[in-house]
């Protein structure tokens, strides 16, 4: 089932999310719905706060980047085969010289900006069966994970922009929070939530 994606301005996007355990209600159904929602919006990552749940979970599927010829064949192969659910993740390390990449977010439609992030990460997380892993990633996969990890920490990519950029985007961001935007997928706007 495709769920509405929470728009910029909703307080759930600014909350630090909480851990969950294997007893979390209908977890497998939730994960399946999140994948369906992400694919329906042509996303490469989706965090639980983006569907209104302040829990420490996100998923990533970088396969849409696999056709980008600016990546090497090896990188394209890695991107094509990377699909993972991260539950209760903990970022252990971020290292290397920061690099810029043009990022967007399903909760902030029609806004894309260059964001600087470090290229290598080490992360500990649990999978759908609550097995624990510690893994290292670099390049674009690391970046997508960092973007989604920020969501469960209550951080949006726009928070990482300069004050000047934020001022330039202020009107657009206010319009998104008021629902004055057209997206190709189902969204839930803060203004709509308050009317209920």
TrEMBL record:
Fe cation binds at residues 105, 147, 151. It catalyses: N-terminal N-formyl-L-methionyl-[peptide] + H2O = N-terminal L-methionyl-[peptide] + formate. It comes from the Bacteria. Its EC number is 3.5.1.88. Keywords: Hydrolase, Iron, Metal-binding, Protein biosynthesis. Its cofactor is Fe(2+). GO terms for biological process: translation. One of its GO terms (molecular function) is metal ion binding. Binds 1 Fe(2+) ion. SUPFAM superfamilies: Peptide deformylase. The active site is at residue 148. NCBIfam families: pept_deformyl, PRK00150.1-3. Belongs to the polypeptide deformylase family. HAMAP family: Pep_deformylase. Removes the formyl group from the N-terminal Met of newly synthesized proteins. Requires at least a dipeptide for an efficient rate of reaction. N-terminal L-methionine is a prerequisite for activity but the enzyme has broad specificity at other positions. This is Peptide deformylase. It comes from Winogradskyella jejuensis.
């Amino acid at each position: 089932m495709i769920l509405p994606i929470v728009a910029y301005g909703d307080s759930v996007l600014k909350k630090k999310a909480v851990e969950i355990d294997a007893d979390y209600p209908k977890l497998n159904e939730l994960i399946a719905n999140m994948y369906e929602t992400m694919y329906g919006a042509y996303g490469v990552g989706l965090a639980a706060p983006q569907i209104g749940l302040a829990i420490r979970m996100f998923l990533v599927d970088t396969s849409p980047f696999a056709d980008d010829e600016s990546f090497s064949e090896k990188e394209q192969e890695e991107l094509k085969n990377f699909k993972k659910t991260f539950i209760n993740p903990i970022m252990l390390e971020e290292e290397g010289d920061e690099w810029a990449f043009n990022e967007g977010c399903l909760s902030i439609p029609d806004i894309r900006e260059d964001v600087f992030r470090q290229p290598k990460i080490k992360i500990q997380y649990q999978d759908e069966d609550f097995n624990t892993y510690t893994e290292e990633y670099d390049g674009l996969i690391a970046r997508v994970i960092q973007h989604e990890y920020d969501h469960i920490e209550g951080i949006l990519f726009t928070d990482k922009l300069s004050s000047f950029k934020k001022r330039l985007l202020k009107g657009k961001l206010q319009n998104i929070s008021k629902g004055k935007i057209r997206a190709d997928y189902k969204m839930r706007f803060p203004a709509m939530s308050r009317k209920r």
